[in-house]
Design goal:
The chain is built from ten helices and no strands. The chain is an all-alpha fold. The longest helix has 40 residues, at 207-246. It is globular and about 75 Å long. 27% of the residues are buried.
């Protein structure tokens, strides 16, 4: 994509060494795979929120594997062991790109699902278990994986059409607006609720309710951090797509496009940050990961 619209400019392309991509892929795969195993093994984590977190980690795991495989193909092609324009290599490359697109979209929609789950937890606490049943959670995850898989294939098959790229960018920004609006509304209501609690006399306050509220708000803050990390890691890449559509032949735009590999490295490094955020912010998951890492016999850690 970047090479098809190259233009002469005074800004040479910035190349990220392959070992950087290999390191990001290996570390992010290990982190996210541990999260998936932790959620599956610990029954205390079998709830809708952790299912969505597990889905997010699974998408990150696929992205790490496929990006590592793509870099291996590049290395083999550079030394002459693969034909860059061969039919089998092209088919494999398209499959890898489809999986990458599916993973990136799935990461985004998983975070959106986590945000909605936190909203229901905070403001519909009494009806939460009736609204977010495990059956509905499974249906939501099935829809996310099916839609993202289909979109990943379609985007690669028709990426040469500008309409597909436009839809991709529009989808990204619409989703950002939805999540941002949800967060603003959530924290506005949380502020009003906190003021009402503060206005109550000391004897009229329910400590258990306050603790539950504080725990739910901490969960909402965790999702906010996840969302902020996603925006920081993804925005340069999507701005790159906008640059391609708006000024593909402008040398000034080409200076920004020369950073394409940096944008891809930042995009893929998103999978590094999310597991660290889980482990730091969520006590139950952190405890499970610690037991998995420190115990040689996992049966003793259950």
């Amino acid at each position: 994509m970047n090479g098809s619209l190259m233009n002469q400019s005074d800004c040479p392309e910035v190349v990220v060494p392959n070992p950087v991509f290999f390191t990001i892929g290996a570390v992010s795969f290990a982190e996210n795979f541990l999260v998936v195993v932790a959620v599956i093994r610990n029954r205390n984590l079998h709830s809708p929120m952790y299912c969505f977190i597990c889905s997010l980690a699974a998408f990150h795991t696929i992205a790490s594997l496929t990006k590592t495989l793509e870099n291996l193909m590049i290395v083999f092609a550079d030394v002459g062991h693969l034909n860059k324009k061969g039919s089998s290599e092209t088919t494999l490359d398209d499959a890898i790109d489809s999986l990458l697109c599916m993973s990136f979209l799935g990461s985004f929609f998983s975070i959106l699902a986590i945000a909605v789950d936190r909203y229901i937890t905070i403001f519909h606490a009494l009806r939460y278990h009736n609204i977010m049943t495990m059956q509905r959670t499974g249906a939501i995850l099935g829809i996310i994986w099916t839609v993202c898989g289909g979109l990943g294939v379609l985007m690669i098959l028709f990426f040469d059409f500008k309409l597909i790229m436009i839809c991709f960018v529009i989808l990204f920004f619409i989703s950002l607006v939805i999540i941002c609006s949800l967060y603003v509304y959530m924290f506005m209501l949380a502020r009003i609720h906190a003021r009402k609690i503060a206005a109550l006399p000391v004897g009229g306050r329910n400590n258990h309710h306050q603790q539950r509220w504080g725990s739910n708000m901490r969960g909402a803050q965790t999702v906010t951090i996840l969302f902020g990390t996603l925006v920081v890691c993804w925005s340069p890449f999507f701005f790159h797509l906008v640059i391609i559509m708006v000024c593909p032949m402008n040398p000034y735009c080409e200076c920004y496009r020369s950073l394409f590999q940096v944008h891809v490295a930042l995009l893929t490094s998103h999978a590094l940050f999310d597991p660290a955020i889980y482990a730091f912010r969520i006590a139950e998951l952190r405890h499970t990961l610690r037991k998995m890492l420190l115990c040689s016999d996992w049966k003793l850690c259950s």
